[in-house]
Amino acid sequence: MFPTARPRRSVLYVPGSNARALEKARTLPADGLVLDLEDGVSPSAKEAARSTVVAELAKGGYGHRELVVRVNGADTPWGEGDLAAAARSGANAVLLPKAESAEAVRAAEGALAGHGAPPELALWCMIETPRGVLAADAIAGASPRVACLVVGTSDLVKELRARHTPGRLEVLASLSLAVLAARAHGLAVLDGVHLDLSDDAGFEAACRQGLSLGFDGKTLIHPKTIETANRAFSPGEKEVASARRVIEAHAAAAACGQGVVVVDGRLVEALHVEEARRLVALAEAIAARR
Q1: Least-confidence region, from 116-120, 147-151, 263-267
Q2: How many angstroms separate the Cα of 46 from the Cα of each of 28, 91, 229, 274?
Q3: What angle do CA 98, 115, 36 make, to 5 degrees?
Q4: Do the bridges between strand 188-191 and strand 217-220 make them parallel or antiparallel, or are there none, so unpaired?
């Protein structure tokens, strides 16, 4: 299985303090859910939110959805308790906010292991500060548990003292650095949220831009955006059909001792076959969920 073949087209943040939203999330067509104990929860509700998230995970019923718990930072009163609870929660991954160094990732890994986390519990890391962007390569390679980088564009724009623009010029360099770091280490990588829920056209454009930059999917703040993200980050029928032709034609050429072949007027080499196989694997994984 390719490292990014698991669909992560749409990953929705769900406040851990909102029991109704946690219940509704069981019916949503999102590929993943981030059960949030950090930004989406007020300080006075954090302890209760932790208990609620643990209880909902124990209840189950989330189907194929990848379940991720975003914990509070290690420098907060709730960070250690969040890691202890998440370690044994049954979640697929723990999302670390504001990751800025390999040391911080390894410290979280040690805390999870100390609290009995199973080997398959993954670490996702948020890249949402200038230090985090500049350390993205070190963060991505900090631990075998690290499986995904998540760009937090809202915090990043604030930290850069930049302005949100339709073309996202203010974060393009950071977005590309995150993709580079993720791919260098064979990880998945997710684009940041779109804040204007009334701007459907802008959201769709941001999804297309994210796909062009190399992202696997987009993090979301409202269920209404799930379908658009799923559509944008799904391989199209023509794209999959072309990929299958590439695989078949190259295999036939290889059987005849040829390393290259022309498919649909384009020269195809082994590197094109690798991407074609990834696309087909992703399309099949998406189809299996219907």
Answers
A1: 263-267
A2: 24, 18, 29, 45
A3: 40
A4: parallel
**3-state DSSP call for residue 33?**
strand
DSSP 127: E
3-state helix, strand, coil in the chain (%, to 5): 50, 15, 35
Task: Report residue 256's pLDDT band, with 50, 70 and 90 as the boundaries.
Answer: confident
Residue 235, token pair as written in the block:
């391989």
Token reading at 110: 């040690």
pLDDT of 3 > 60? The answer is no
Structure tokens at 159: 């930290």
Confirm if 3 and 16 have CB atoms less than 8 A apart.
no
Which DSSP category does 25 fall into? Answer: G
| 262 alpha-carbon distance from chain centroid | 35
Cα 251 → chain centroid: 32
The residues with which 12 forms a beta bridge, in sequence order, are 33, 220
Give the CA count within 13 Å in the CB-facing half-sphere of 10.
Answer: 25
145-168 as b/e, with b when 16 or more CB fall inside 10 Å? bbbbbbbbbbbbbebbeeeeeeeb
For the whole model, what pTM was predicted? 0.94
- Specify the amino acid at residue 147: A
The domains of the chain, with CATH numbers, are 10-232 (3.20.20.60), 237-287 (no CATH)
Those residues whose C-beta lies under 8 Å from the C-beta of residue 156, and which sit 6 or more positions away, are 127, 128, 129, 130, 133, 171, 174, 192
